[in-house]
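Researcher: We're teaching a course module on how sequence relates to structure. For the next exercise, students receive a sequence and then see the predicted structure as tokens, so they can try to spot secondary structure elements on their own. Here is the exercise chain.
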Amino acid sequence: MRNLAAVQEGEIFAASRAAAMPGADSTVLVIDDDPDVRTSVGRLLRSLSINVQLFASIPDFLKSDLPDGPTCLVLDIRMPGQSGLDLQRELAASNRDIPIIFVTGHGDIPMSVQAMKRGAIEFLTKPYRDQDLLDAIQLGLSRDRERRETDKDLVSLRERFASLSPREREIVIQVARGRLSKQIAHDIGIAEATVKVHRSRAMQKMQAGSLPELGRMADKLKLVPDTTQRA
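Model: And here is the predicted structure for the students to work with:
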């Protein structure tokens, strides 16, 4: 009975883990020069219905096109020629923001510290537990999904700001600097009531429900330098 209960508990746990993994639009990229590792990781991820692309070398990876959906990279840190750390630096330099999970057959504390300082999700030493790898992958894909949503929202915000008239943009920037309507009116030489009309139209176009929300939008768009002192 205990064995049966243990099997059932394991099945429930595995099912819950599978359900928690990201959706079918997610892809895991695996770069490892060991064919056995590639086969093993590929089989594991496909068993959970996770898309996976396998690469035997970094040059093979660099020649490929990145997936459109949430992505993370499982990367062997030691490979012939270009190392995993070299690729991490190259991706950062080209602004290709991909969450990286490093794996290695040899524990190396300085390497792990260097990789983590540069933003790696995890640094696993072979042989690692499948669950540790899956947990790291889930975190990496979740972070990439969040980043993509943030980028999408920022594109929409920029489009809304671009729809403003030159005067409305000017007033949004002044509001973001903490200037009052009467101060803005004095600075640009128009009536305070006119400032309020422009501000109201700008808020409607920006879809801002309040002045604080408009200020947060301005912060996201970096309309006001960090060094600017708000009134």
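Model: If you want an answer key for the exercise: The CA atoms of residues 40 and 154 lie 39 Å apart. The beta strands are 27-31, 51-55, 71-76, 100-104, 122-125.
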